[in-house]
């Protein structure tokens, strides 16, 4: 980590800010709102922006970044932008065109990190979630090692700086790490991670291979029936989390974010609420109590 504790060094020598702004939107949020909230996130201090082709809002997120560059708030090199390779583009010949499509939507020359969104190949085409007549996803047969080689070529071409993965387990990571002729290791593995799903074993594995764990859903799983049991408790209402927050005169959200940073995890804070966006950035200020590691789940 750099002296200010704001960034973590990746295994290819680049640095990633430890706190990122997640730009995935809920169904009830219009994609165009990504423009306004991303601009606001940059204005209050976020420099790490996480997005993806799957979110279908890169055009607006890119517009927000360019507008903040144009008005002098930031320079391009101040922004760390992550995009993701969607499942319908995992065939090696589709990887670079997919990245170029994202760059065209963003109107940027490069991304700061490009990662495989999921280790699951789906039938190529315009549909993001291709399904058969029975409503089942149509999968594709792709060797992820070949996909990785295509990502390495994108890095060599300067279209992206670091390259990494998302939603990989340790066996899937090992397949890439043990690939003959590996040129670049994944710099990160972005996974769902929060106090109810702390990913301790995966975190230990990643640390042992100099791979940074990036946490999404850091404030709790999405509250939709397809994702979680809605009878399960809401993370930010957890009694232990609330007690720690009260003790340190902070909010449960800030405690959950600080928990990840203290573990050496890069954390994404997703919100389309300006009040919460402004609150979340406070985790990087000296006013947020660091607490004892014993207070937090291991």
Automatic annotation (TrEMBL):
MF (Gene Ontology): oxidoreductase activity
Transmembrane stretches, start-end: none
Annotated binding of substrate, by residue: 117
UniProt cross-references to SUPFAM superfamilies, sorted A to Z: NAD(P)-linked oxidoreductase (SSF51430)
Family of this protein: Belongs to the aldo/keto reductase family.
Keywords: NADP, Oxidoreductase
Native source organism of the sequence: Moschus moschiferus (Siberian musk deer)
UniProt entry tagged with the keyword Coiled coil: no
Site feature (Lowers pKa of active site Tyr) residues: 84
PROSITE patterns reported in the protein's UniProt record: ALDOKETO_REDUCTASE_1, ALDOKETO_REDUCTASE_2, ALDOKETO_REDUCTASE_3
Residue ranges of every copy of the NADP-dependent oxidoreductase domain listed in the record: 19-284
Active-site annotation: 55
Protein name: NADP-dependent oxidoreductase domain-containing protein
CDD domains (alphabetical): AKR_AKR1C1-35 (cd19108)
Keyword Repeat tagged: no
Record-linked InterPro entries: AKR (IPR020471), AKR1C (IPR044482), Aldo/ket_reductase_CS (IPR018170), NAD(P)_OxRdtase_dom_sf (IPR036812), NADP_OxRdtase_dom (IPR023210)
């Amino acid at each position: 980590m750099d002296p200010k504790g704001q960034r973590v060094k990746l295994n290819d020598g680049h640095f990633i800010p430890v706190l990122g702004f997640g730009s995935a939107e809920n169904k009830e949020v219009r994609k165009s709102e990504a423009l306004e909230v991303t601009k606001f996130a940059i204005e209050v201090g976020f420099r790490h922006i996480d997005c993806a082709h799957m979110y279908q809002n890169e055009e607006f997120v890119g517009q927000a970044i360019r507008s903040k560059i144009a008005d002098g708030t930031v320079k391009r090199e101040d922004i760390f932008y992550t995009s993701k390779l969607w499942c319908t583009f995992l065939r090696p010949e589709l990887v670079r065109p997919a990245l170029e499509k994202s760059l065209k939507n963003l109107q940027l020359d490069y991304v700061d990190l490009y990662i495989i969104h999921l280790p699951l190949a789906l039938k190529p085409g315009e549909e993001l979630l291709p399904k058969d007549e029975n409503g089942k996803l149509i999968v594709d047969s792709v060797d992820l090692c070949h996909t990785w080689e295509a990502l390495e070529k994108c890095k060599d071409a300067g279209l992206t700086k670091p390259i990494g993965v998302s939603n990989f387990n340790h066996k899937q990571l090992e397949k890439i790490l043990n690939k003959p002729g590996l040129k670049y290791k994944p710099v990160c593995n972005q996974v769902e991670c929060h106090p109810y799903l702390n990913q301790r074993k995966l975190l230990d594995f990643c640390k042992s291979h100099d791979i940074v764990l990036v946490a999404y859903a850091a404030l709790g799983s999405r509250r939709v029936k397809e994702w979680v049991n809605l009878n399960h408790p809401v993370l930010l209402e957890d009694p232990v989390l609330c007690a720690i927050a009260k003790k340190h005169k902070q909010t449960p959200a800030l405690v959950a974010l600080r928990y990840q940073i203290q573990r050496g995890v890069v954390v994404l804070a997703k919100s389309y609420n300006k009040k919460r966006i402004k609150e979340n950035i406070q985790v990087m200020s000296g006013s947020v109590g660091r607490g004892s590691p014993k207070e937090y789940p291991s």
